[in-house]
# Entry
Amino acid sequence: MTEEKTARPHRARPESLEALGFPGELPEDWQQRAVAALGRRVRKQPDLRFFLNACVKCGACNDACHAFLGTGDPGNRPVARQDLLRAVHRRHFTLAGRLFPKLVGALDLDEAMLERWYSYFHQCSECRRCATFCPFGIDTAEITMAARSILAEIGLGQKSVAEVIAKVHRTGNNLGLNPRALRHTLDSLEEDVREETGMDIRFPLDEAGADILLVTPSADFYSEPHVSGLIGYAKVLHAAGISWTLSSHASEAANFALFLGSDEHMRRIARRIQEAAEELGTSRLVFGECGHAWRVAYNFPALLGGDVPRPRHILDLTHELIGNGIIRLDPSRNAGMAVTLHDSCNVARGSGMGVHPGGQLDIPRAVLAAAVPRTVEMPAGTTGDRTFCCGGGGGLLTDEMMEIRIKGAAPRAAALRQAVEGSGATHMAAICAICKSQFSEVLPHHGFDRGMVVGIMQLVGRALVL
Amino acid sequence: MDVLVTAAFAFLLGGILLRMTVFLRRPQGRGVQPGLPIRGGRLGLVEALLFRRLWRDAPSLWLASMAFHGGLAALLLAHLNIAPHLLRAPGAAAMIGGLAWLLGRRLVLPAMRRISAPSDFLLLLLLLANALSGAAFLWLVPGEMSLLVHQGLGIVLFLVLPFSKLLHAPGIVLSPSRRVLHD
# Structure
């Protein structure tokens, strides 16, 4: 099984798992523990029980997954991936599976199966495209998340995700930036923007009483094209005269616990953002361009309970400011650009935006159209609620997964090629830090220049009339 | 025999009710909802009757499913003595044709064979056997023996249906993913 060997993330070290409350090593009785964990998960989450029970093996999802299309590995078909968990569930929790396992495709959780779990549940980017093909809406991401959380409970974690979660608990962001380093970065950004515009545009940190607490993915602090997006947020808020601040306590929008399927850690990471907002006394949370962070943020009321309000997306706010005439964009400042939008999976399929259904698809397009001279679309069926994953989501954005990341991006690259050759697209905009990083790294392998990957707020920042 | 058929039918209804308690359990979010905010995705009943997703993504599968389910519905009505002479022949043709197609693709397409368990084939064969035995009784070898075979197969179907994937209609209407995210 060569394809499996190339697609297995590094295992988390014992100390990183123990820091998150998981066992560091595979315990003696891992099999019983895993089955018990599956039972608990299914009882707690009727959705999962439904997804495990509802499949009729119709094959409608067979060609839906970017990972399958890119690798050609049948193990990456959505139904095949789901069946890895389904077969074990059937064996232990259904009458037919206990009595006639062979007949109904029920399988024991042995070492070979555990290996397959570790490999295939880490090749799923949890993008949920397949769920839109399933007549029953079976959500493979929920199955992947459940399987990953069970793996963590028996000491089998993915290195980068486990370390990132530990880091965000410890320092407030995925990079481990301390407040002083963060302030230093922001100072140099203020300097850069002053040189570019001749204006004092501030990047405030921990300023109590600001109207808005802006939460961005930490990639926005250090690498291109992300930083240009952060500059775009700052310029827009400055031009609109809105008082805002970043927080060193919540200096990260990302919530990798979603990828791990750990509700407990996901809540804890989300709560620290809400706490930062309460401590600083800001009246509204606004999220920057980060796909899965927005999915979690959109669910804040359900996730954190009580009267926690739903945060706002920076694109939604920008859209309103453009509509009210409070800010003005001059698309000619992006002259020569024809931009196509890559809908980020977690935004397109995992959230909403603004007040109208479908706003998560329409609002980014409206803002983009206001910022550039020309926009073009990639072929139908590859965007909107059927958008292809960038191939790097769900915690796959690590070096050792490079081969599957390159292959997983193939469907998006093929759609982009059509937009470039057919409609003259010069750039592709993304609204997610993972998409931007992934595309910058893998598009060159598909014959594109990495510079064609941009963010919408980056383009807004350039077009904004100050 | 009629008593047995009636008992099996009662078992079928009871089994469906029992299974519905699983389907009907409120999907409680674990924080992040699995709902898919798909435009026009709210009408589960329409989906269950027209299979629009299959129409869009897998037209040949749609046709086979429609033929089978339509034929099945026609034959159910005929069994209830509703226009039997009008419904029997086209219903049987559609049901048998649809089933043969569904079975054929599962056998012939490598992707389908790969994702199929033995039970996936056996359930199709059970349905096909029900349809063929009924047709045989009506048109080929009428008589006591044929009727007994058909009724026997019907009893097996009634016993298996509620506790197998054959009971999947409620899943289309009640899928957790159908809850639209926008509130």
Q: What stands out?
A: Chain B is about 75% helix and 0% strand. Chain B has a mean pLDDT of 89.
